[in-house]
């Protein structure tokens, strides 16, 4: 008897139903909205402006042109003149780009940590995230259909962020798997069931 057959028999014996993929997608979008709301309330307006300026600065890097009589671009923020020594301008651009990249990377790190912590805390204490609670599904251990352990919750939360949220490849197996399991479900030995 394969592992999948054993899971199927155990699910039947316990009278449990696998959560449909549509409910899981709905729960995921609810969770993403909640994380964005939490993030927007925890980051001050000054920090949000700093991130916006950094992003705009990075977008403007590709608008540099060599100033000549033939090409005039009104959207250019900085023009390099025909002088062979533009080192001061280029150093300013490098410095601005580095500062902008630093701000954006710190912001992305905060987003990642918040996402992982959100999933971990709710999964560990409630067996489901807020989105999963709303759509009435929960995550259980595949062996005993109980709430996942601390280690399993952390592993699943980190894998969900890396494979699911950032790379968007973790969700694809749910569409073809017999039990609608994602990569991070398989790797953390969990399964999502309907309440």
Automatic annotation (TrEMBL):
InterPro entries linked to this entry: Pra-immunoreactive, RDD
Pfam hit, one: RDD
Topology relative to the membrane: Multi-pass membrane protein
Superkingdom of the organism of origin: Bacteria
The RDD domain, residue ranges: 19-188
Keywords attached to this entry: Cell membrane, Membrane, Transmembrane, Transmembrane helix
GO cellular component: plasma membrane
Residues spanning the membrane: 21-43, 104-126, 158-176
Subcellular location field: Cell membrane
Main location: membrane
Protein name: RDD family protein
Annotated source species: Helicobacter saguini
Lineage of the organism: Bacteria, Pseudomonadati, Campylobacterota, Epsilonproteobacteria, Campylobacterales
């Amino acid at each position: 008897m394969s592992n999948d057959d054993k899971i199927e028999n155990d699910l039947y014996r316990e009278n449990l139903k696998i959560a449909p993929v549509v409910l899981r997608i709905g729960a995921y979008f609810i969770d993403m909205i909640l994380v964005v709301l939490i993030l927007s309330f925890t980051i001050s307006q000054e920090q949000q402006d700093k991130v916006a300026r950094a992003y705009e600065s990075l977008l403007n890097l590709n608008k540099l042109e060599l100033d000549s009589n033939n090409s005039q671009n009104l959207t250019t923020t900085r023009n390099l003149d025909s002088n062979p020594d533009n080192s001061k301008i280029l150093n300013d651009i490098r410095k601005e780009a580095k500062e902008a990249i630093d701000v954006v990377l710190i912001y992305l790190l905060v987003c990642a940590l918040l996402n992982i912590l959100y999933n971990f805390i709710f999964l560990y204490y409630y067996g489901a995230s807020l989105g999963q609670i709303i759509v009435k599904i929960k995550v259980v251990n595949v062996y005993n259909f109980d709430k996942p352990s601390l280690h399993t919750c952390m592993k699943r939360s980190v894998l969900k962020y890396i494979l699911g949220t950032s790379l968007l490849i973790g969700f694809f197996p749910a569409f073809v798997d017999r039990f609608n399991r994602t990569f991070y479900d398989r790797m953390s030995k969990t399964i999502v069931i309907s309440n």
